Amino acid sequence: MNQPDNSVVDRSGAEAGADVTADAVADADAVADAASDPLARELLQSIVDTARAIFGAAASSIFLLDEAAGELVFQAVSGQGEDFLVGRRFPAGRGIAGWVAGSGEPMVVDDLNREQGFARDLAESTQYVPNALMAAPLLDASGVLGVLEVLDPSPQARSDLAELDLLALFARQSAGALRLVTRRQAQGRPGAAGVRAGVRAVEGLDEAGRAAGLVLIDAVRDLLLAGNGHS
Amino acid sequence: MTTDSIEHASAPAEAPPHPAPLPHPPHPARLRSSADPARLTWSLRGRTPGEIALSADGADVTPEWAWGGSTGRGIRVCVVDSGVERDHPDVGTVDGSWVVVGDEDGFRVVPTDTGDMCGHGTACASIVRRLAPDCELHSVRVLGERFSGTGDVLLAGLRWAVQQRFDVVNLSLSTTRAKFAQALHELADEAYFGGTALVASAHNTPVESFPWRFSSVFSVGSHQETDQDLHLYNPEPPVEFFAAGQNVSVAWLGGKTIRTTGNSFATPFVTGTCARILAKHPGLTLFQLKSVLYLTAANVQVDTRGAA
Questions:
Q1: pLDDT tens digits for range A128-178
Q2: Mean pLDDT in order along chain B per 10 residues (308 residues)
Q3: Do B143 and A165 touch (CB under 8 A)?
Q4: Best CA proximity match to A140, nearest among B43, B144, B220, B209
Q5: CB within 8 Å of B271: residues ≥ 6 apart
Q6: B-chain residue closest to A68, CA distance
Q7: How big is the A-B interface in CB pairs under 8 Å?
Q8: A137: closest CA of chain B, how far (Å)
Q9: CB nearest A6 (choices: B110, B119, B203)
Q10: How far apart (Å, rounded) are the C-alpha atoms in residues B240 and B36?
Q11: Complex ipTM tops 0.90
């Protein structure tokens, strides 16, 4: 047997990784902010509600990846845990969701109840230990945004590749929608900050100046709304 | 490695006679004829072996000839994944456990005793072990503890495995980040010409990720045939081979077993099959190995009328 050489140092990967990390941090910031955006929250909730209905499941969850922290964050839950899990974090390298986030591959596992493996401590912390679990990555060209999980789907969905394909397709569609929402949010953020700064500046003006300033802000707002397709 | 049969011209005279000479690889034109980009397929879902029947010329390379009686002895297999649990009864001996660690100096691969952080690597190792019980099994952990799915850790672990010249590397993961594509492509070609079969999971839906997408890789998806021992060849790749990945019983953490579904479990099936073939036919180049997998696919019918 050849003894593997454990002294290999791979710097090229580290250098490539530096760019990726910068991208990932920006992505993670945008995605993590999804929780604070009403439209993103509504989108995420509709995804888990729909996934739960499609697969006749007991629950469904979306975890978004906070890559800088190395954690997965519950961002939307349908069913068990809906009222207390959102915002909870766990290490992104652990459990089935962690593997799916790391590998980019969907998977189904069954017979979990009779086994002691499977990040049981994590499952128990959610006060629900499923017997079966389907998970697919929220994937786009920039990488993995998070993971869509379905807990205890109907029995026929647990061992059928077509059902896993369906979950993967739905997760991909969801990732695309989420990306659009977060981009829109990111694009809107500087504008919103500018408006807030403008309002503060206007508040410091005299009566005539304030009136003129507010007219200007209203005009800019109308212009932006028209540009976004609003009437 | 065993030398119970070999088709190389340089085989020793006392070697047992080969049951059938290795046929020429299928003519490239035959494979290209249907390779209209608009018809490329990622999945064989809903298509029976009869519906995707292919033909080839030459001697009949049967599964019995290809790997019958082989246990994978002498073949070094590396599972690049979440680690492998030691002493799992369905995995047996793990000959080497390694992990990619990163610091300001870059990435290094060092020995580890941390086992498996998730269960997936153990599951893949158990499938390899079931098919090739006597192979030498190693693990490189590129996932676990913290998120490491950006591609850099994967690249470092895979590069190390190729440099160690393992005979077969099982990779049930990929990256969608295009900036890693070039480095992974070069590494896949290096593996191919260096004699390391890189067997990698594809996606059953049209997702572009790497390195499975490269032709120097043995790309694998899941079929849903009831016979879990057969594999298929996709007449319209990018995904070339399909193996059992539905409702598969695998090892899991804590010495247990579970049932699973996914492409990532079809991949070690092909890895184990490659180990068996290479153990029985140690002189094969990797393009010959691919040809053997092609000719033994359940949907490929070999026309032996022209064989000598």
A1: 778 899 999 998 878 889 999 999 999 877 778 889 999 999 999 899 888
A2: 35 40 41 51 84 78 96 98 94 96 89 90 97 98 72 93 98 90 96 96 87 96 93 95 94 90 95 98 94 96 68
A3: no
A4: B209
A5: B77, B79, B124, B127, B128, B168, B169, B170, B197, B199
A6: B147
A7: 235
A8: 11
A9: B110
A10: 15
A11: no
Query: How close B303 comes to chain A (CA, Å)?
Result: 33
Tokens of A224: 């932006």
Rounded Cα–Cα distance for residues B220 and B271 (Å): 10
Domains of chain B: 71-303 (3.40.50.200)
List the catalytic residue out of B120, B203, B223, B281: B120
CA–CA dist A64, B10 (Å, integer):
57
| CB atoms A104 and B209 under 8 Å | yes
B152 is catalytic: no
Cross-chain CB nearest to A141 (options B142, B178, B260):
B178
* Reported confidence tier of residue A227, pLDDT bands at 50, 70, 90: very low
Residues 6 or more apart whose Cβ sits within 8 Å of residue A112: A118, A129, A130, A131, A132, A133, B258
The domain over range A14-184 is classified in CATH as 3.40.50.300 = no
pLDDT at A212: 65
Q: How far is B134 from chain A (nearest CA, A)?
A: 14
Q: How far is CA B275 from CA B129, B282, B284, B300, in A?
A: 10, 10, 12, 21
Among the partner residues A101, A108, A169, nearest to B147 by beta-carbon distance: A101
* Domain spans of chain A, in order of start: 14-184, 188-227
